[in-house]
Design brief:
Elements lengths: L2 E6 L3 H9 L8 E7 L2 H10 L4 E5 L7 H11 L4 E6 L4 H8 L4 E6 L5 H48 L17 E10 L4 H18 L3 E5 L5 E6 L4 H16 L4 E6 L9 H11 L2 H5 L4 E3 L17 H15 L3 H16 L5 H16 L8 H13 L6 H15 L11 H17 L6 H7 L4 H12 L3 H19 L4 H8 L4 H12 L3 H18 L9
Helix pairs in contact: 2-3, 10-11, 10-12, 10-15, 11-14, 12-14, 12-15, 13-18, 18-19
Length: 542
């Protein structure tokens, strides 16, 4: 390292002698300047990074002792060499007490080698101090990293509803903060590529945002908590979102940003508001930033057991019109429901459930003729509604299905249309609830029939017993999960509606002639073969 030195003395000959008796560059020192008094020297110290100060004690305007006091405040690492006469000895002793004086030299007896020795001592002490400060800085950095990691873990737990608080918070997290949830819309096909894209985006965000923290949650979400300075959080997130889009390497993100909260302990509320803001993408488009809002009072919530009268009335009209081959009537009922969807009468999850129900009604008139392949296609298409990129795309799927069913080969036959309408509603109800505990009595009550009569009608119109039909739906959904998710086998059974893992394994093997594990392996091999045929070089398979 190159050190800078400054010579201060009111006698020009002394300054010249000090400057000329050392080969500064060979010693790794740059002679930054000379000054005739303390005030001039202090001005240089303010403008230059001075490491070694060689100064007289008695000088006009500002003496050496005062200069050292001020210089020490500006440059705590400064090393000082005093040059003085015999009469200044008492001052030299006082200067040593200031803690930055390495040694003092007497002008009458000073030799060039004396100054060189002291200069080299200054360099050694500077190097030692620098090493100590670097070590201290590393220790502080490691301590901050450890504390930040602990804060991240506590924040994850807090957002998950199991945390109790924070043992330590970064300085930026003390005060107003906001939270953003980043949803990756496009990141490559498989789960590993998806994770790599999220990890890359997280690292970029942490590079760009020095007053925040980005991390991946256990649910595979990318979350950013950042300080808000007079409304800066939304503009910061918008800027980061634009930069990620311009780079293009991390994929396409939709972001929900919470309103500002006044302390990090309110992060759970902010998290809920940010996630709810993401629903705007379903109505307005993906790949944008959406600002959430604080609910005005308690927003009404419809519980699972409460009936949605508005939707049920329109579904009833749709089902009757469809059962009676009334094309204008069914299309009018659908148009009215679409108007409610576009008016945001319902949230995304409710709209998806409505669409699933309508598709089930449309497919219901030929359940007797459905093959295993058809059943699998139906389950896949129903689950595919969950991935609809937006409301318009979902409406298009429903309208296209309805248009297809009015073709001559698929047009419903209006024989005992009233009975067909009841079974349509029953099948729609079953589709909504087959992954939960559902009984024949539950469905009979829903369509206002006796249990025995409904059982007879159901078998007559679908060709299957109620329980066999429910099991078939559950098994097809299990196949869908095995092929498209990495859920554990026991969780696949539970998610599909089977209360007993043993019962699930038994039924699956009986129907598929293989175990769930074997079925998943077969699907994975099929996917690999498809990629090979498509010419993809999949490094993630290595």
């Amino acid at each position: 390292m190159l050190y800078n030195a400054l010579i201060v003395d009111d006698e020009p000959m002394i300054r010249f002698g000090l400057a000329s008796c050392v080969e500064w560059e060979l010693e790794g020192i740059r002679l930054a300047g000379e000054a005739a008094n303390g005030e001039a020297a202090l001005a240089l110290i303010r403008s230059e990074d001075i490491h070694i100060l060689i100064t007289d004690i008695k000088m006009p305007l500002m003496d050496g002792l005062e200069l050292i006091r001020h210089a020490k405040e500006l440059r705590p690492e400064l090393k000082v060499v005093l040059v003085s006469s015999y009469s200044d000895f008492a001052y030299a002793v006082e200067a040593v007490k200031l803690g930055v004086v390495v040694d003092y030299l007497l002008k009458p007896t000073m030799e060039p080698e004396d100054l060189l020795r002291v200069i080299r001592t200054c360099k050694e002490r500077l190097a030692r101090d620098l090493a100590g400060s670097e070590k201290e800085a590393r220790l502080r950095e490691e301590e901050t990293k450890s504390k930040t990691f602990k804060f991240e873990e506590e924040l994850k737990a807090f957002l998950g509803g199991v945390g109790e608080g924070f043992a330590w918070k970064p300085e930026w997290a003390i005060g107003n903060v906001a939270l953003a949830v980043w949803r990756l819309e496009e990141g490559g096909g498989d789960a590993l590529r998806h994770l790599v894209s999220l990890e890359g985006a997280k690292n970029r965000l942490n590079q760009w945002c020095g007053h925040g923290l980005s991390f991946l949650s256990g649910d595979g979400e990318l979350i950013t908590l950042l300080a808000d300075h007079n409304g800066s959080a939304l503009s910061d997130i918008t800027r980061y979102h634009r930069r990620l889009a311009e780079e293009g390497s991390a994929g396409r993100f939709t972001v929900g940003v919470s309103p500002v909260v006044h302390r990090v302990q309110s992060a759970t509320d902010a998290y809920g508001w940010a996630r709810k803001a993401l629903d705007n993408a379903f109505f307005e488009g993906k790949g944008r930033c959406y600002l959430g809002h604080i609910p005005a009072g308690e927003e009404p919530k419809r519980h699972e057991h409460e009936r949605d009268v508005g939707f049920e009335r329109l579904r009833e009209r749709f089902s009757k019109a469809y059962a009676f081959s009334d094309q204008p009537g069914s299309e009018k009922a659908l148009s009215e429901l679409v108007a409610l969807w576009k008016g945001r009468r319902y949230v995304r999850a409710e709209i998806v459930a409505h669409a699933r129900s309508l598709l089930t009604i449309m497919w219901s008139h030929r359940f007797r003729m459905k093959t295993e392949e058809d059943m699998g296609m139906m389950i896949g298409k129903l689950e595919g509604l969950e991935q609809s990129p937006g409301l318009d795309a979902l409406i298009l799927v429903v309208r296209e299905e309805l248009t297809r069913f009015w073709k001559p080969d698929d047009r419903p036959v209006a024989v005992d249309a009233g009975g067909a309408h009841v079974i349509q509603l029953a099948l729609s109800y079953i589709q909504e609830h087959y992954r939960k505990d559902i009984s024949l009595q539950d469905v009979a009550d829903y369509v206002h029939m006796s249990k025995n009569y409904f059982s007879e009608q159901f078998k007559q119109r679908t060709g299957m017993n109620f329980i066999d039909f429910v099991i078939s739906l559950r098994l097809h959904y299990a196949k869908h999960l095995l092929e498209h998710t990495s859920l554990k086998i026991i969780d696949v059974g539970a998610e599909s509606g089977f209360n007993s893992p043993k019962h699930f394994l038994k039924l699956f093997k009986r129907e598929m002639n293989c175990t769930p594990v074997e079925f998943r392996e077969r699907c994975e091999r099929g996917h690999v073969e498809e990629r090979k045929r498509a010419g993809e070089v999949d490094l993630y398979e290595i």
